[in-house]
Here is the input.
Amino acid sequence: MIYFNNLTGRNYNKVYDEEANNPPADYDPIIFNLDDRQVENAVNEDWQRVIPGQMAMVVQGDEKLSTTVYKISAIERTKDVTTNTEGFIVRGSVLSKLSVKGNRYNISFMLHGIEHKRLTDGSFQRDVNLISAAEY
Here is the structure.
């Protein structure tokens, strides 16, 4: 499982002008992006573990984990016209929505049991954009 850190609350589909009221049946939304500078940052070393077919969840700007579980369907090279940087977008199809009281999990509750060198007390360390729940 990959956990993507979108604490800035960025709407990727809007940034890449892909918001659609009636998307085609085979459309998978953009669930995350990472620019080349972030990919090269050592704290994001788990980027190498992001591959199509893997499950993923996204931590949103309100520091809560979305209840949507995605299956990564594609990783595409692209240019972000807003920031004028090159990098990657990650697309994902919805696998399931977790049934919870309320609409989101608290991030520290969800990540507290995961052992990872880039997590501190269930929170992402500074500048960390993603982690893999593989054993460390």
